[in-house]
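Quick illustration for those who missed Monday's session on complexes.
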Amino acid sequence: MSVLKVIAIDGPAASGKSSAARSLAEKLGWIYVNTGNMYRAATLAVIRSGVDYENEPEVLRITATMNFDCCIENNKSVARINGENVESELNSESVNRAVSFVARIPDVRNKLVALQREIGQKYSVVMEGRDIGTHVFPDAPYKFYIDASEEVRANRRGLQGQEDSVRERDRMDSTRKTAPLAIADDAMVIDSSDMTLDEVVDTVMKTLGLNGLIPAS
Ligand code: DC
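Prediction with 2'-deoxycytidine-5'-monophosphate bound:
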């Protein structure tokens, strides 16, 4: 698989990776791809169908036939169901609660990973998720794992006004059998607990500069 320009950013829930990835993509003029939103959109389709999200065969029945795609608008990925942009509905409490159940199903992952690889081969991307550096693009030349203490992450979600059990999602995401949340051997780990967003982005930019991707500052 040829991987020319993929910056992989992984990390647990509410670690600050989305804000960092978005800002980084803007600075570089690259495409920002939020793979969590793809799993969230699949989950929304399951919730809308009314089936029990813990019932794997039923979830598979819905996700196998759903018309899901991900387009690029204004330099960022937009998850769609039947052509409908569903991004504004992806951070609800009900999606937070169900998403790790849907994301642990191998057939769901295969479908979304294929889409992610297609996008990464077409564009220069900053792609964030849980398994980008370990599984989706293991050959990505630039990998970061953004972490933060559990307390800081729970606080960040609270400040965003969201009900989200980050501890339970992390437990499920890091213990599932298929492509669990893990630190790639060659990823740079950034603990953002005591850092501002700008400091995180600066750290990443400096590393990219030292590795010749952009002019060193
Ligand atoms: O990044 P996020 O918190 O919006 O992701 C929502 C869920 O999607 C997360 O709890 C696990 C799943 N996910 C995944 O399994 N693999 C990814 N690459 C991205 C997200």
